[in-house]
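Fig. S4 source data, part A: sequence.
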Amino acid sequence: MMLKAHGGVRRKVGMRGLVFCGLLLVALGCEDGTTEPDDEPLTMEEAVALFEGMRAIHQDTTSAILHASEDTTVVACPVGGRVLVTGSASESVAGDTLRLETDFTAAPASCQFSQGGHQFTTDGDPGVREQTVVVIVGLFDHVGVEGTVAGRLDWQLDGRSGSCGMDLELTAEPDLSGNEPGVGGTLSGTLCDHDVELEIESVSRPGN
């Protein structure tokens, strides 16, 4: 049995015809695999709110603790979800010098919170690592502080989503004016692709 094309006439389509058809399909939006536009990234103000909101959760002593062990704490987020905080704190003495070190990683899981008028949902694997070293010589004759904050969080906000990387360095000075000595300072570097300089009121281990 012989099959014939409708109308009984068949034509060959040359290279120019194929190129024209391809361009026409692109113009009409009929091609396969259309590309969706990228989500809008976080503004500077939104990025700072994201960072401050996450940091406040795992450093808030009033946050509900879902689980705790020697080196792991699971903290409930204000609206929903949780944050897994793992790490350690140690101190050592050599002569008249005291050295305090903290090394913690916070990994949120569907963690929801409000900060600065924004409602965030965050996830992180492995999350954000914060390291701090405090060196005290004598009776506070000298206090040296250094630290870093580095990692990445996935975020959702107002129907947008994306990933926020951070690489911050701590510059700090001791504050001995109050009843409880503390350390305040500045975190500077990159946050969600923005150059930032963030003032912090205290440097302490999560949960303190």
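Fig. S4 source data, part B ends here. The chain has one domain: 44-200.
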